[in-house]
Automatic annotation (TrEMBL):
<dbReference type="GO" id="GO:0006082">
    <property type="term" value="P:organic acid metabolic process"/>
</dbReference>
<keyword id="KW-0503">Monooxygenase</keyword>
<dbReference type="GO" id="GO:0020037">
    <property type="term" value="F:heme binding"/>
</dbReference>
<protein>
    <submittedName>
        <fullName>Cytochrome P450 2A8</fullName>
    </submittedName>
</protein>
<dbReference type="InterPro" id="IPR001128">
    <property type="entry name" value="Cyt_P450"/>
</dbReference>
<comment type="similarity">
    <text>Belongs to the cytochrome P450 family.</text>
</comment>
<keyword id="KW-0408">Iron</keyword>
<keyword id="KW-0560">Oxidoreductase</keyword>
<dbReference type="GO" id="GO:0016712">
    <property type="term" value="F:oxidoreductase activity, acting on paired donors, with incorporation or reduction of molecular oxygen, reduced flavin or flavoprotein as one donor, and incorporation of one atom of oxygen"/>
</dbReference>
<keyword id="KW-0479">Metal-binding</keyword>
<dbReference type="Pfam" id="PF00067">
    <property type="entry name" value="p450"/>
</dbReference>
<dbReference type="GO" id="GO:0005737">
    <property type="term" value="C:cytoplasm"/>
</dbReference>
<dbReference type="GO" id="GO:0006805">
    <property type="term" value="P:xenobiotic metabolic process"/>
</dbReference>
<dbReference type="GO" id="GO:0005506">
    <property type="term" value="F:iron ion binding"/>
</dbReference>
<dbReference type="InterPro" id="IPR036396">
    <property type="entry name" value="Cyt_P450_sf"/>
</dbReference>
<dbReference type="InterPro" id="IPR050182">
    <property type="entry name" value="Cytochrome_P450_fam2"/>
</dbReference>
Amino acid sequence: MRPLTTPPGRKQRNQHSCLGNGPFFLNDMHIWKENRRFVIQSLKDLGLGKTKIEAQIQDEINHFQEVLKSFNGQPIDLVVPLTSSMSNNISSLVFGKRYKYDDPERKLLDENLDELINLLGQTAFHVFFPWIRNLPFLPNWLGIEKGYKQFEGSKEIFRKKIEEHKKTLDKRNIRDLIDSYLVEMEVRQAKDANTTFEGKMPC
């Protein structure tokens, strides 16, 4: 597999392109479309929307029920265990594994996502008017820079997972979305040096 570098002639994307380099619907539209088609098909191949994913979901439900039982009928805030359960279903498809509810890595991913959603809800106008980021002190006041740090924290986890998958990849046994992407990337790069499947996340 070739080094993950930007192909010749392609514009290098800003590391914050998703959060502030321009309106999200105008940035790298072709990349988003191509990757979206691939992701949808890959998730279907992995069982999304089909009966073969039922066992995986049922297993997660069993773990969720065990958490509820541990409270012995006492009042409980369901937000935390429900969030953990739902994110585990996603993790199983993307990473090929589920996390324990108290796993630090899973907690970090959930916390970062929650922070980003809150941030975008409060400052969504900067997505449509990215030049606002150039106003002195405004990014810190709005919390935009904090959002970048949260975003980079999650991306670092994904980078680590991708490297782990490269070392254990078996093309005859696709375990999850990352495996599927790595195989597809190699195929497309062999056919087209300028493919958007270049080993980088769309953001």
